[in-house]
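Anyone up for a design puzzle?
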């Protein structure tokens, strides 16, 4: 993920690609690609070996790789699913589905610690719905409106990928007085949109209540909130990401009371950001987690 976010001279000015070789970026990227390919090759080969031997899995026990190998074998897609394609799909799903998710969770917990009122209100909702059960289940999430509002507010203030994925205009358009020819690369600053004072009241304040009884959602239909992008280039993993975020956050605040170590004040928590394709906290979040029961 770090290599993905590094500025590459060759990407913008091809004649200066020699700078990437000189700086070591090109070699580093090649090494990362080789390491991933070797690892993923081993994963795929292990599954193929299991299917040949006595370790064949039932349908209930199949994982993502098993399903992709079934698709390859049955040739139901209308195109050939090559080994490299399978490895690329695995890499895409796990890279996109883990880095942004844990970044969002870290930002959410950080904001909750800085805002004890919000933390208390969220814990009260989770406790009431849990009804004494030891764990929050996926079926409970639909009842947790304040939890959903908290996640939305976190995504508004801390968009995991602030500049989204680059787009390209498919035809000549005129926008806000500007002539934009076909083939122009467009960069969408979702972070700036989420903090735009013309769209949000007190945009720098963490206030989940703004999303209670609000129609604004994150699915790409409301352009005030675009953590997953919109249209054909929107993130296909929205549902997966939101369930994982909501389920993890709900169980953390249900099972633990969280506090900063060494008597540190909540308002002094460092919220500075890193640079890169995914925005993380510059200083990793350190908390003391005390079991609630």
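Challenge accepted. My sequence:
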């Amino acid at each position: 993920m770090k290599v993905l976010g590094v500025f590459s001279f060759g990407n913008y000015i091809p004649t200066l690609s020699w700078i990437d070789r000189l700086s070591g970026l090109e070699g580093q990227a090649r090494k990362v690609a080789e390491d991933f390919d070797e690892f993923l090759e081993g994963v795929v080969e292990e599954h193929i070996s299991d299917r040949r031997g006595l370790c064949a899995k039932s349908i209930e026990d199949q994982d993502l790789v098993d399903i992709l190998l079934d698709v390859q074998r049955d040739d139901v897609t209308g195109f050939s699913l090559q080994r490299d394609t399978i490895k690329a799909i695995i890499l895409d799903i796990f890279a996109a589905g883990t880095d942004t998710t844990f970044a969002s969770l870290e930002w959410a917990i950080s904001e909750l610690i800085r805002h004890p009122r919000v933390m208390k209100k969220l814990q009260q909702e989770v406790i009431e719905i849990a009804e004494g059960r030891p764990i929050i289940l996926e079926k409970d999430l639909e009842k947790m409106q304040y939890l959903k509002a908290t996640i939305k507010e976190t995504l508004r203030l801390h968009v995991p990928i602030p500049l989204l994925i680059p787009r390209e205009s498919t035809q000549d358009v005129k926008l806000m007085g500007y002539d934009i020819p076909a083939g122009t690369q467009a960069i969408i600053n979702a972070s700036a949109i989420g903090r735009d004072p013309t769209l949000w009241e007190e945009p720098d304040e963490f206030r989940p209540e703004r999303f209670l009884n609000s129609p604004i959602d994150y699915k790409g239909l409301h352009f005030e909130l675009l953590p997953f992008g919109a249209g054909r280039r929107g993130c296909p993993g929205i549902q997966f990401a939101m369930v994982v975020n909501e389920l993890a956050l709900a169980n953390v605040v249900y099972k633990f009371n969280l506090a900063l170590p060494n008597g540190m004040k909540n308002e002094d928590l460092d919220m500075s950001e890193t640079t890169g394709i995914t925005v993380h906290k510059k200083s990793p979040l350190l908390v003391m987690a005390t079991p609630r029961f």
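A detail worth pointing out: Residues 83-114 form the longest helix (32 residues).
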